[in-house]
Amino acid sequence: KSSNDIIQCIGFDKNFAYFGSASGLFCYDYSHFINYQTPFTTHIDEFTAGGEHKPILFAKDDSPVLDYSQNDLVFQFYANSYTEENATTYSYSLEGYSKKYSNWTDDNHAFFTNLHEGDYVLKVKAKNIFGNISPEEKFAFTILAPWYRTWWAYTLYIVALIAFVYVVVLY
Fold this sequence. Notes:
Layout: E1 8-12, E2 16-21, E3 24-29, E4 42-49, E5 52-55, E6 65-66, E7 73-79, E8 89-95, E9 109-112, E10 118-127, E11 137-143, H1 151-170
Parallel strand pairs: 6-11
Antiparallel strand pairs: 1-2, 2-3, 4-5, 4-7, 7-9, 8-10, 10-11
């Protein structure tokens, strides 16, 4: 292209714009325009509990109940933002453990060890290369108490204490 080329728009419609110059005819296809605001979602697709791999195949309303021996958890998640997907970053929070979100990281795993019994909700969000943040994805689960911290164990402790006091007082 020389400096004396004059480019003129010689027509356009809904999908194309046509430009003409001394160098030739050019066509711009609007369908190749990238929408930087395209919404995307984050998905939690599997977790490992106590060394046992568990794909998440159940409905979002289902909340798995885990034994206390399964209180070491690893979650894996991904986002369906396909432009430079390796540049997607993630942030997560485990409600019931911490209310604060993690720093943004490109690691798509979350690790939690020695969780106490209780109800938890993992919340994950992703940020794509354009800075757009996905809606939160949530996954609820419950960790049961160990047998020695259950109501029936406490009842047994009280009965044993009463029996011990009775035997000491009686004899």
